[in-house]
Amino acid sequence: MVASSANKEQIFIGIDGGGTKCRATVFSSQNGVLGTGLGGPANPLHGLDRTLESIMVSTQLAIQDAGLNLDKVNDVVAGLGLAGVNLPGLYQQIQDWHHPFKKMFLTTDLHTACIGAHEGQDGAVIITGTGSCGFSFVNGQSTILGGHGFAQGDKGSGAWLGLEAVKSALLSLDGLGPKTSLADILLAHFKVTDAMGIAEAMAGKPSSSYAQLARPVLEEAKKGDEVALAIVKDGARYISDLANKLLQNNPPRLSMIGGLAEPLQEWLDKDVVANVKPAMQPPEMGAVYFAQNSIKG
Asked: What's the DSSP call for residue 80?
């Protein structure tokens, strides 16, 4: 493993931040994982202050879980893998943060997910959670596909499924689109009686709120609702295309990560599913490995 080569005296923290939650893991090469913590959304595309708050909440909880004093944060080397920082402006905002760590190394959540999934070796990864995107690292060359953010991208993700469900339900309730069971489900979910009630409930909501509606779409698709079925098949087709594009780079391994990775697989191309291998380590451990390699460099 990559971790074994690090300075045994140094404690690292790996942070994986996405549109729904932020996970942190405190790690030492001598004793392994010391503690973990969970914070809220950490995609700077949807708010820098909220992202920094979530990073610190997960960090503090992980340090406490490790049985360390909170002032130990000044001694740890942090690796951050965050959604959204593939956009240069957001990357710079995080880099400019006056962080409390001894040192901080920043990259995308895709990069750290790939490092973790393949324990530092070459490979490819697709994230299908609140958002969606693909990444491969083969022979020193990295490729990023998607990751354009909600709502202009993230097709096949939880947020995208939820958005499509809301749009379809509103059309159905207005009599301008096909009937769908999603309409009744959303009315019940928001405890409202008409399309305007759904629209008001979702007005200004972030991607994480739309992602909460993804599971009902998958459930109704399984039950045969034609609208839900069309949404899920469209999203799965995109994820399959994403996988096939990444596989053209001949990665030794391909993994899928995120809350929808497992439920989406039954809708993907069989050839894609046959190539998917379990992630060897979670993204936050990929962030630890990234920090270890960065501090050596």
From this structure: E
Does the pLDDT of residue 190 top 50, yes or no? yes
Residues 6+ positions from 66 with CB-CB distance below 8 Å: 26, 34, 35
Whether the Cβ atoms of residue 250 and residue 138 lie closer than 8 Å to each other: yes
Q: What is the pLDDT of residue 6?
A: 43
Residue 101, SS3 per DSSP = coil
What integer is the mean pLDDT of 126-140?
92
> 292: which 2 tokens?
């270890």
| DSSP sequence for 130-195 | SSEEEEEEETTEEEEEE---TTTS-TTSHHHHHHHHHHHHHHHHTTSS---HHHHHHHHHHT-SSH
Q: What is the DSSP string of 256-291?
A: EESTTHHHHHTTS-HHHHHHB---SS-HHHHHHHHH
> Is the pLDDT reported for residue 7 higher than 50?
no
Strand order in the sheet with 11-17: 32-39, 22-28, 11-17, 77-82, 103-108
How far is the C-alpha of 225 from the C-alpha of 237, rounded, in Å?
A: 18
Percent above pLDDT 90 for the chain: 85
pLDDT at 283 over 60: yes
* pLDDT on residue 46: 82
Task: Tokens for 232, please give them.
Answer: 């899920």
What is d(CA 57, CA 97) in angstroms, rounded to the nearest whole number?
16
